[in-house]
Amino acid sequence: MVSSTPLGTAESRSAAYFEAIPWCAARLRSASDPVTYWPVPWDRDGATKFGDRFFSTTLSTELTIPHFVFFHATPDPSTPENALLPELQAFLHLESGIGGYPGYAHGGFVCTVLDEITGLICTLNRTRGALFRGPAMTGYLNTRFLKPVKAPGLVLARARITKYEGRKAWVRGWLEDETGTVLAEGEAVFINLKNRL
């Protein structure tokens, strides 16, 4: 079951797209594990409208990623508003425009998705007051390619915070297919910026 977090028009279309696909709908509509859609704040610093244009504009096309939706487990009503949400997930519909070898996603694109999902879980928790204040950037992202990622195709991207201390957050990210097979995984550290760039 999905909570009623307000989504924009494009996000609502993407949510409807994934809710019509049985394996995606099973995760999004589970009564035992309800989820909340998260409308990503692409203007990460909140002050400009020039934030993450790479995902929100460059990769958001009919030939690249025509549909994507981010979501997390719905917290229990007794959970404090500033409690850490340990995991973020996203369904992505990949098209041939992100391809490298014919029929498969480019390895650099796979790294980009892992960087995005691992960074966004930090953003989600920062906006909740559960992590450091202010923006963070990738300190490192170590990636392992386990199986080719099909394009066109659908993937589930997941990220989990494994540790946070001071100005650093350690995050594990991975991509799965519809069977739950892990296709690629990454370990990242995000560092809170002392001063604005």
TrEMBL record:
It comes from the Eukaryota. CDD domains: PaaI_thioesterase. Residues 103-183 form the Thioesterase domain. This is Thioesterase domain-containing protein. It comes from Pestalotiopsis fici (strain W106-1 / CGMCC3.15140).
